[in-house]
Amino acid sequence: MKINPIDITWSSLFRILAVLILAVTAYYIREVFVILFIAIIISSALHTPVQYLERKKIPRVLSVLMIFLIALAIVSLIVYAVAPVLIIQLKYFLSNINELRIPLLDSFGTSDAVSQLNGQLNQWLNNLFYGGSDIVGFITSFAGNVLFVFVAVVLSFYLSISKGGIQRFIRSVMPIEKEEYAIDLYKRTRRKIGRWFTSQIIISFFVGSLTFISLLILGTDYALLLGILAAVLEIVPYVGPIVVGIVSFVVILPESATLAFIAVIIFFLIQQLENHVLVPLIVGRAIGIDPVMIVIAILAGGELAGLTGALVAIPVAIILQEIIDDWSLKKTQKLKSS
């Protein structure tokens, strides 16, 4: 049997080395790509309203500035309205957490697992109230996340005011033969990502408001705190409400076991409303992705890149679906022509 020799040239080795260097570099600066991707998502969401204002003869820069100022004003008003009550509820929770912990753990009986959990809670509370590396780490992490969001928002502003800026960027990095397809893919996914972003804000507001009103009617001390938590975690569909439901049960249980179980039932009903009405009606129509695929995408994104991966999972799924649909269409056309 004749074995054909493999001819490996120096140029091939250099190409492989260059690809490896690029891959390693991309891994170490992956947060930069995530910031850019989030900025593109925000810019995509603003594309339709900016176009509408441009048709009304308002310059693009002024249109984008108006939208950002309105968004900033809304966020500022919300913070101004809820911050005092939220701080009071948070202070009350932190000051009573040690007293809440004892009846909560007693309700689970005595076991090695409960004792271990109690020890971990003691350590966490000591770090929380008496300082330590955990507090420094928390502050550092929080400041880093704030900077992360700020940079993404600023970058989205510049992407929005630059008409065709992303298309020019695509042309600069893509091979000539792939330019038109990449730009067409971007335009299609931009519309879907923009609709998804808008629908997600609507659902987050609805779920947060419904949670707050329901817990307020129950008379729990942490209605606003848990309502805001529900709205924030709703940016991770399906998973967010489950986490809030568990947190609510743990927080409310020391107040009243009955209220805690009623709260769980309320969160179950809210999640069913979200899963069977809100997501199919709003998100499903906006992006055209099956809810099961959305869940798989979120879980995969979370496994690969933590919370950040879960946040960008749906936009990535939108892009991948468009690519797969294009590939399937080309394959079908090729089979028909052959």
UniProtKB/TrEMBL annotation:
Q: Does the keyword Transmembrane helix apply?
A: yes
Q: Which compartment or compartments is the protein found in?
A: Cell membrane
Transmembrane stretches, start-end: 12-29, 35-53, 65-88, 135-161, 196-218, 238-270, 277-298
Q: State the membrane topology.
A: Multi-pass membrane protein
Which top-level group of life is the source organism from?
Answer: Bacteria
Which GO cellular component does the record give, naming just one? plasma membrane
What UniProt keywords are attached to this protein's entry? Cell membrane, Membrane, Transmembrane, Transmembrane helix, Transport
Task: Please list the coiled coil stretches.
Answer: none
User: Which Pfam families is this protein grouped with?
Assistant: AI-2E_transport (PF01594)
Q: What is this protein called?
A: AI-2E family transporter
Q: What is its main location?
A: membrane
InterPro entries on file = AI-2E-like
GO annotations under biological process?
Answer: transmembrane transport
Q: Does the keyword DNA-binding apply?
A: no
